[in-house]
TrEMBL record:
It comes from Clastoptera arizonana (Arizona spittle bug). This is C2H2-type domain-containing protein. Belongs to the snail C2H2-type zinc-finger protein family. It comes from the Eukaryota. The keyword Isomerase does not apply. The lineage of its organism: Eukaryota, Metazoa, Ecdysozoa, Arthropoda, Hexapoda.
Length: 245
């Protein structure tokens, strides 16, 4: 790669060397670039100078604001060369591509098991440390992750927040809902296309786009596609649509 400025070349070389010369005086965390250190210090100071003009959410970096705004616009400029799936962030595209390439750059120092994502490695490390910092207030059972505790908590409350849209059956875990759909509904092949048996699928055979977005008037073939699109406009917590006259 070629660079216009010597400083840009230096920053690039650190990708290969792993050098992190900029250190935070408050927590000792190190960074490759001075700008990244400045953004990090804002976290300690509580400063978030860049705000979204649509939902008012604030950020420490302009880059994070640019990526966030794509939630509202629906822009996904980064597409996978293998399956054409599109992403709003280059980093998420990189993670996705590993599902095709099988690359696992993160390895466990204790057992040499490899992972495609750092978050998966962090979860795996808990199996070695056996740390269980999350305990149930009712039965005192302990868990390594808060998510596991929440799932366990439902055994006491009886809560079943995941509902099958096909038959109405409810489940305490999302994984159980997925298994149910695969084995009960898809396994039985309840919904077969006969160019008329399933309304949503039938519309894919037609060029008619009868469902339109009330915000931007974009049209869609299926109601599900229309609903998914509307989330782009309404995903901001403080976003309110103002009707124009």
């Amino acid at each position: 790669n070629k660079f216009k400025h010597k400083s840009t070349l230096k920053n690039h070389i650190r990708i290969h060397t792993g050098e992190k010369p900029f250190s935070c005086e408050l927590c000792q965390l190190k960074f490759k670039r001075r700008d990244d250190l400045k953004s990090h210090i804002r976290l300690h100071l509580g400063e978030r100078p860049y705000s979204c003009d649509i939902c008012k959410k604030k950020f420490t970096k302009t880059r994070n604001l640019v990526i966030h705004k794509r939630i509202h616009t629906g822009e996904k400029p980064f597409s996978c060369e293998f399956c054409q799936k599109a992403f709003s962030d280059r980093g998420n595209l990189g993670k996705h591509k590993r599902t095709h390439t099988g690359v696992k750059p993160y390895s466990c120092d204790l057992c040499e098991k490899k992972f495609s994502m750092r978050s998966s490695l962090n979860i795996h490390l808990l199996t070695h440390t056996k740390e269980k910092n999350h305990s149930c207030k009712i039965c005192k059972k302990k868990f390594s992750r808060k998510e596991f505790l929440l799932v366990h908590w439902r055994t006491h409350t009886g809560e079943k927040p995941y509902c099958c849209e096909l038959c109405g059956k409810t489940f305490s875990q999302k994984s159980n809902l997925r298994k149910h759909i695969l084995t009960v509904h898809i396994g039985k092949k309840s919904y077969v296309c006969q160019r008329g048996s399933l309304n949503n699928h039938l519309s894919t055979h037609s060029e008619d786009k009868q469902y339109s977005c009330k915000f931007c008037k974009k049209k869609f073939k299926t109601q599900d596609s229309s609903k998914s699109h509307i989330l782009i406009h309404t995903s901001g917590k403080n976003f309110r649509h103002t009707k124009t006259h």
